[in-house]
Structure formats: C-alpha cells, structure tokens
Amino acid sequence: MTRATTVRAVLAAAVLLVSVFISLTMSPRLGLDLQGGTRMVLQAKDSATVKADRETTDRTLEVLRQRIDSLGVAEPVLTRSGEDRIIVELPDVQDPRQAAAVIGRTAQLSFHEVLGAAPPGTDPAPKPETGEKRLILPDEQGTQLDLGPSRLSGAGVKDASASFEAQQAAGWTVKLDFHKDAGKDWTKLTGEAACHPAGDERRRVAIVLDEKVISSPQVDPSVGCQAGLPSGGTQITGSFSAKEARDLALLIKGGALPVPVEIVEQRTVGPTLGAQAIDASTQAALIGAAATVLFITIVYRLFGALAAVALAAYGVISYAALVGLGVTLTLPGLAGFVLAIGMAVDANVLVFERAREECQAQPTRSLRSALTTGFQKAFSAVADSNITTLLAAGLLFFLGSGPVKGFGVTLAIGVIASMFSALVIARALTEIAAGSRFVGDYRGVNGIARPGSVRTWLTRKDPQLFRRPVRWLVVSTALVAVAVAGIVVRGIDLGVEFTGGRLVEYSTSRPVDVETARSTLAAAGFGDAEITTAGDGDISVRTGKLDNDGEHALREALAAEGGETTKVRDELIGPSLGDELRRNALIALGVAVLVQLAYLAVRFRWTFAVGSVAGMVHDVIIVVGAFAWLGRPVDGIFLAALLTVIGYSVNDSVVVFDRVRELWGRNRKTPLATISNRAVLQTVPRTVNTGMGALMILVALAVLGGDSLTDFALALLIGIVVGTWSSVFTAVPAALVLERTTSAPPPTPGKSSKSGRARAPRRDPADNGARV
C-alpha cells in the first residue's frame, strides 16, 4: 500500500469516526414543514415618524420575541431577513390566529394619571368638558380606574430592568430610566400624583399597554407634592416574583413596536403531514439506495460493492455535516438529501468507466495502474460537473425563499460529501483491493478489467450519430415547440406562492366529495374558492384574500359537512410577496443561465459553452411545458427542482465536452464530428449508469413521497431524461454547427511547464522505475 493510499485511508477513517460521533450525539433541527407549526414572514412598514430600516427592524424583532415568549411557544425562532423583514417560526402552533393577533398589532405603551376609582358600570362616554373618550380600565386587582389622557409614551422609556433589593427588604423591583425630555414629563406626572394623600387612588400612576393596565403603582409617601421622581431613580415595588418583575420590565421596555408590521406570508403545517413526509422520504431513501447499491454492484462487481460502502459513508458524513452545522432540515432539503444519494454515484461511475477504457486499451496493464489513471483522467470532469451543481445550489440559497434555501444547503453539502467519498474513501478502498493478487488475477471479479455490455455493444455497432447534426437540432426544436404549445394553450398553473392568496388543505373524519364541499363553502360565502382533492381524500381550498378569522369560518363550514376537520397545511402569501417571489424566480433562472454560461466559457471553448447552455434552456422549457400539459402547479418546490435540472443538464454536457476536448487535443487533424461521435460513445456508459442511480431514487420518491414530494420527483424525472437526451443530441450538435462559424484552432494536447519542456507523466505507483 503506497503512502498516498495510507494517507487517504487514515483521513477517511478520521472523518468517519467524527461523523459517527456527531450523528450519535446530536439531533437534527427539523423545519416546520417536517415537525409541524406556523411560519410567518413580517414586513416592517414606515410609520409617520419612523422609517423601517435595519435598526428599527432589529428593535421590532426584540419586541416580538418578548411578545411570543408570553405565548408559551416552545423554542420559537425569530430572525431578520434583509433590511425590513422578520421571519417568525412557531413550532407546534396549528391555529395562527392568536399568534397573528399578538404579533401583528402595534402595541401602544402609555403612562396616565389616575383621576380616581370609577363606580361600577361607568360608561366610558366622552367627557363633556373635553370631548375626549374616557378611559375606564381595571387595575391589576380588577378595580375600575378612571384614567386621564396619556402623559408619556413608551418611546420615552430608555431602560427597564428587574432587580432584587435584599438590603431594603423590598424584594423584586423594577427600575425605570427615561430619556431626557421624557424624564421631565415623568417627574411632573409623579409630582402631581404626590399632591394627593397616601392611599388615595389619585396618588397612583397607571402604566397602560394596549388599553390594559400592566402596573399602577402608588407614588411613595416620601415624595413631596410637585417634587416628583427623578428619571434614573424610579423603582416600582410590590409583591413581585422574579418572573413577574422580569415580565413587567420587558413589557415596559419593549411593549410598543417601533414600526408597524404586516404579515406577508404565513404557512402552517400539521404534525401528521411532517411525520408522513419523514416516513415517506426514509422509505424512498432506503428502497432507492438499496436499488442503487444493487445496480452498481452488478455492473462493477467488487469495485461496485466498495463504491456502495463509500456511498454508505457518504450518507453518514453528509448527515453529520447537516447536524453539526445546525442546518434546518426542510422537506425539500430532505428530498435533496435523498436525491444526492443517487447523484453521489456519478463520480465513482466516471472513474470506473475511465479505468475500464484503460484496461481495454492496454489489456496487460496492471489493475492498480489502470485505476490510478482512471482517477487522474476523470478528475477534471468530476470537478467541473460538481462545480456546476454547486453553482445551482448557491443560486437556490441566495435567490430562493423559505424551505427552498434548505434544499440549496443540503444539495451543496451533498455534493461536497460525495466528492470526498468518491475521491478519498472509494479511492482508498479500491486501491487497497487492487493491490490484492486475487483481485488482479481474476478479471471478472474486480468489475473494471473487462468492458461492460453497453460499451461492448457500442464498440461493435459504432453508430455515426453526427453526420447530419442539424437533424438532431430539428428534433429538439420540435420537442421545445410542443412544450411551448402547452404553455400557451394550457397556461402555467402558478402556485399560491407566486400569485398570492391562501391555500388550505383539510382532512375530514367523514368523506366529502369536491362538489359537496364546493356547494357547502359557497353557501357559507366562499363562492370564489377553488376546491380540489389532495392526498388520501383531503380537501384543498384555494382563495384570494382570506384572513385567519375567515379561514376559521371556512373550516367550521366544512366541518358541518365532514365532521371533525383537521388543518393539514395552510399557506398564505400576500400579493406583494407573490409578485416578488415570481420576479425572483425569473431572476434565478436568468442568473443560472448566465452563471453557467460564464463558467463553461472559461473552462471550455465558447462554442461548447453555448451548446451546453442551449441544451440547458431546452431542458427548462420542456420541463415547464410538461407541467403545463399535465396541469401540475409551479411553485417554489418546482423552482428548486428546475434549478437542480439545470445543474444536472450542465453536468452531463460537461462530461461529454470534457472528453471531446481531450480527444480533439490528441487528434487535432481529425474532423470534430468524428471526435464528438467517439466522445459520446465513450461517455454513454457513464451517462446510463449515473442516470439509473438517480432514476431509482426519484421513482421511489415519486411513488412513496406523497403529494408533498410527487411533483418535485416528477420534475426531476422529466429533467433527467430530457437532460440525458439534450447533452448528446442538443448540446453537441449545436456546438458542431457553431464550430463551422469560427476559425479558432483545436485545443492543445496539454500544457507545458515553465521551462518549455513537456511535463513528464506521473509514474505508476506500482512501478519501481527499473527497466531492462
């Protein structure tokens, strides 16, 4: 075993041990779409006096955090998004009405003089002398107080803190500190209250939050009339517990929102839907992975089995990375994790196919030498294809929203982990196996010493695919025309995420058909609602503008017909956010095309880059057109699938053009059409074997994933099939046609060293250098 192999083996063992430790000692963070709960996106708005910027949004977030803590929600998550948006996640909250009421209101904190106790039944009618509405509110003990107008607002409070006064035996107290001008108003207010005798209701000062008295302390008897309390020396005392004192300090300090907020997005997922999604994804992962492992073991024998071991290691490493980095695992992210299992086989397939070519070209070559050359020659294609996928993942993260970001993170981690498993773990295992005399002597055992059946058939038939490249472009254009016809004739069914509105899915204890549900809801005043079935007999209702009270009334009307009605899923998107998400989706697609074009233009000839992008656009249009013909919704999950298709499509094209560049550099006088034909035939086994791995996972997701994952898997299934076609019959013919317009010379066979001498080839690790 060489030193390099030993280093790889030790590194692989170390990473695996750390990954196993993390997996056993840490739990994943589940998104709300998996554990159930409510997610809201709040838009901060400018008020008459305050602009909604980063600073005021941060202060608003802290106030909201204090309010939500009062709801008793376990582990709520509040984060700022951009300059003026706040994301609120409330696990296990299924009825968002209370949360929306607490979050959405702009609380008003004010300080009032107490005019006296109000007799029971006092009508808060306008006062005849001022015309102002009388404020009659109960104090902490329920006594009705007649309050004067507001003398000071919450904006004047600089700080409020709870502390324990052991020396004065006052127990828990709340200290108040005011801004300069507000401090003067406070001193004046308390000075006027101090003019009344001790025990008199008028000696109290009422602190009111949203027309509720949260505290009404008496001014201490030691304070003289018109003297008042200084700003920094005010204490509210009472029989407070530690919690009560802290809560009062929080309410006084942060009771009022600096700026008003509007709920622009709200999603609620029932706990059963998340549990079903986890179970379905787990089943799909196990079945798909088992099928993939069986497939690569049959195709590549011993080395395929070792690649399966590396694939299992990939699963452990990527899971540990997700858990260790604290990534929130969402439903699309879970699907991405499962999908990456199938795509992780790609690098191993590339290496094994290159090693097969080396063995076929030189049958007497040692197995270790062929394997080492396979890793070396496949590296550029592996790197390029994974970088294009990482670009797609980056676009998902930066331009996606909500759960789609989670898919981008999961996909990126999966790509990095798959490269490590293929180039380090699988290489260490296969190099150790290749050093065995038994594996080297029995060529049918190792799986790469003999060409596969697909390669043998292609070598025997030797089809000439690109004598007339234009005819393939005509076929691809016809497919695009059919897709465009679907978009024009049937239209694109944009999901509520892109149009705005509300989509609610209910499960009823008694079966309710669509017509019955439609007539029932129409009678209840929801005649414009779109009613469809979802899942196992569930009812899906899509409406325009519908607030939480309206949703509650809708559910009650449905319950009258279907018995006990449970909300399975609830999505509310404001019209402004819908427009923004739709605009961002188009930007994401445009940026994806430009970024991939720029990268490919740097790595390859411009003709190859344009051909790859042409195939990518071809795939996008056909997938969108297929969804239009099928009447499937186009939403954020579909966008995630579409950007993944872009990465996969470019991945396939990169492998083909990488081989074209290599062969053309070695045979510069051979016609490009012949070179391209040879490159395609050499890479077809890799394309078939990689596609089979991904297709097995996706079929399992489509069949077992339920409604939540079916459309995602369907889009990827169509995209992979079409992408396989376009990488051969769209990208390559387009590049051939474009090459007729350029006079650029063929690529050079290799780069020279700085001294101008050709770089010596790397020696076979098993070669000791001796020659006879």
Automatic annotation (TrEMBL):
One of the record's GO molecular function terms: protein-transporting ATPase activity
InterPro entries listed in its UniProt record: SecD, SecD/SecF_arch_bac, SecD/SecF_bac, SecD/SecF_CS, SecD_1st, SecD_SecF_C, SecD_SecF_C_bact, SecDF_P1_head
Keywords carried by this UniProt record: Cell membrane, Membrane, Protein transport, Translocation, Transmembrane, Transmembrane helix, Transport
Pfam families, A to Z: Sec_GG (PF07549), SecD_1st (PF21760), SecD_SecF_C (PF02355), SecDF_P1_head (PF22599)
Subcellular location, principal: membrane
Start and end residues of each stretch annotated as Disordered: 741-772
Subcellular location: Cell membrane
TM stretches of this protein: 333-352, 406-429, 470-492, 585-602, 609-630, 636-657, 688-706, 712-738
A single BP term in Gene Ontology: protein transport by the Sec complex
Keyword check for Signal: no
Membrane topology: Multi-pass membrane protein
KW DNA damage (keyword) present: no
Residue ranges occupied by any Protein export membrane protein SecD/SecF C-terminal domain in the UniProt entry: 261-430, 558-739
SUPFAM superfamilies per the UniProt record, alphabetical: Multidrug efflux transporter AcrB transmembrane domain
Superkingdom of origin organism: Bacteria
Stretches assigned to the Protein translocase subunit SecDF P1 domain: 58-114
A GO CC term assigned to this protein in UniProt: plasma membrane
Domain (SecDF P1 head subdomain) ranges: 142-259
Role according to the record: Part of the Sec protein translocase complex. Interacts with the SecYEG preprotein conducting channel. SecDF uses the proton motive force (PMF) to complete protein translocation after the ATP-dependent function of SecA.
Assembly information from the UniProt record: Forms a complex with SecD. Part of the essential Sec protein translocation apparatus which comprises SecA, SecYEG and auxiliary proteins SecDF. Other proteins may also be involved.
Entry's family note: Belongs to the SecD/SecF family. SecF subfamily. Belongs to the SecD/SecF family. SecD subfamily.
Official protein name in the record: Multifunctional fusion protein
Species annotation: Streptomyces nanshensis
